[in-house]
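We emphasize that the prediction below concerns an isolated chain of 362 residues; any contacts that depend on oligomerization or on bound cofactors are therefore not represented. The input was used exactly as deposited, without trimming of termini.
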Amino acid sequence: MCEPGQPLSALDTPFLWVDLDQLEANIAALAAYFREVGVAWRPHIKGIKTPEIAHKAIAAGAIGVTCAKLGEAEVMARAGIRDILIANQIVGPHKIGRLVELRRSAEVKVAVDNPANVRALAAAAVAADVEIGVLVEVDNGMARAGVAPGQPAVALSQLIHTTPGLRYEGIMGWEGHAVGITDPAAKRAEVERAVGLLGETARQCRAAGLPVRIVSGGGSGDYLISAPLGVLSEVQAGGAIFCDATYLAWGAHTKPSLFVRTTVTSRPAADRIITDAGFKALPAWTHPPIPVGLPPAQPYRTSAEHGTLVLDAPDDRIRVGDTFDCIVGYGDATVFLYDRLIAARHGIVEAVWDVAARSKLR
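Result of the prediction step, given as a token string:
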């Protein structure tokens, strides 16, 4: 049982915890940066999933949150968050019915890329006597969802603008294909190209008389490039609040605040450490976790229930029963595995937060 006032050292492992001092410093740094460059901040909570952290971001200046799933948006609305963008398509009668009900308690906006979906949303909104905000999703290079930039996006925008029950808000895109480019010049060029497609599409929409209020995009892997370009009105960077190993590698200017503590369960060789945090507790897929305070080692490897760390040189100072922290490899693949997130300051538990949006896949 974990309660406020306990030292982290007294807790059983593996457990997920956040350093409150660093978390709050990251939130302050992000809010200050977006104020400085003149864009609104709407952090994506798909990898955070914890309303208490969303409220901290809003208190620092975020205008609301971005969600990937309707279920996440429902959790955030129940927690009192009122301005929500679902950066995804809401399709089918079950989800659309939930969306119009959610609209009664929150200013919720959704992404669309298909006329049939536009008509289905509109019919449900009119029947429920609500108005739903809608953004056209533009495929600006990721080759995932979205209509093509330019005239296809303009045409869909015009349909939305003239359809009762819907309120046309603007466009959004995500240049996620660019965030992992390792050459800085090549990454900057591709981000500028992709965001430029959004800017040109917004220009064409405005030239057609459409009220483009929002141009949404950017993320924690590229906000230092995308936010200052003068195109985006709001940026969806959320992962930089945790600044896990992935976002650290992708260039976030914050510092790691999210960790999993693990116990050494075996020392079968002088250069090998086995822990109790395998991929069910500490996934290593997008980027391997980074052990804190240990000698140099090869990347952390996982099987289902075991972590394996091979040291660069034999070292018998780390003993069975010792514990250490790992910077989480990728929060989006880790936080949802846990029921609770332990919030600690100076090694003492200050709060235990439910990961309220975990398992919200619908």
